[in-house]
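hi got a favour to ask and not much time before my train. below you get a single protein, a line of residues and a line of whole numbers that encode the local backbone shape. could you go over both lines and see whether the tokens make sense for that sequence. a few lines back from you is plenty, here it is:
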Amino acid sequence: MAFRLAALPWRRKHSPKDDPYWDSYIKTAPTDLANSAAEIIRRAPEGNVFPTRSDLHTPEITSRHVKEMARYLGADLVGIAALNPEDEPYPFAVVFAVRADDDPRTSPGMGGQVPVQNGLFVSFVLSAWIRELGFRATSTSEARAEQLAARAGLGILGGEGRLVTREFGARVHVANVILTDLPLAADG
């Protein structure tokens, strides 16, 4: 008598077409923003800058530490752009992107907002860490975030002005930009 495994339902491959809730998960925005982690992080106040500045290494080593911290927190791509000191209150912008299976602009549901939440978490914690070092840092949703990401060497701007990366193509979300006076070395 031969023994045969039964066809177990979790052993076969599923696709989003098999799931009746998938479209709702991706496309339906939360009705109550109080239930959205992204909204909670956006409303959280920024902390104070520590009054004594930490002794730092060279700007190149400090930049490497900032990038390693951002990757540790969940950023997939990290770059630093120099800003024009005559037009900006901060000399540097730390820009990062997270992989996005669904574009948050066209997928307002929880599935499409996962990269937004991940990006907000990274920017919130990283800017708090920079302030703990004794330097100013503010996390902001810049209208020019994609341009800053291209300037920081994360990728190039596509036809629609969207960031296109070597690693993920256009399937990335450029998160909030951290503007800071931490002495860094710019990329790009």
